[in-house]
Amino acid sequence: MAERDLSREERALFNPAFTALVCVRVVQGYEKQYRSACPLPVAVTAAVMALQPSIRTALPATIRTGLMNWLDENEAVRVAMGLNAAALAAVVRPGLLFALQSDVLRLQGSGLIVKPRAVTALQDGPEQNTAIQKAAHQLGRWLPSTGSISTVLTLLGVQA
């Protein structure tokens, strides 16, 4: 990604304000499902996945779908994560820092929480932005259902 100029759309998506919002959506999904602070690796991993169109289109319709079976049926997800995870994590980290510095996300113990009423419900906007936010929310609810985040990262083929 650093070897070429980013397109206008990529610059819009990969700015810290938008990636902060993506992280917030992950944490909101996690909080909704688990009623606790979202582990930092879940927030980063889910945001990285949500930013990839090939992964967004492959996401299951329900969070009851098992991650292992889904990955077996969608081998391209492992390939995409292997190719893009490190570069996209470098894009997500400044957004996460921005969310923490602006007090939209807060650290609680070893996890992240959303400051109450800091971010409203999903608004209408460009279709791609909405799709990314919805995927981030779904991934925040779904990824941890398999077990530990280290297990999830291993299944995805990503090194922590």
Automatic annotation (TrEMBL):
Domain of life assignment: Bacteria
Pfam short name (any one): MC3
Protein name, entry field: DUF6521 family protein
Organism name: Streptomyces chengmaiensis
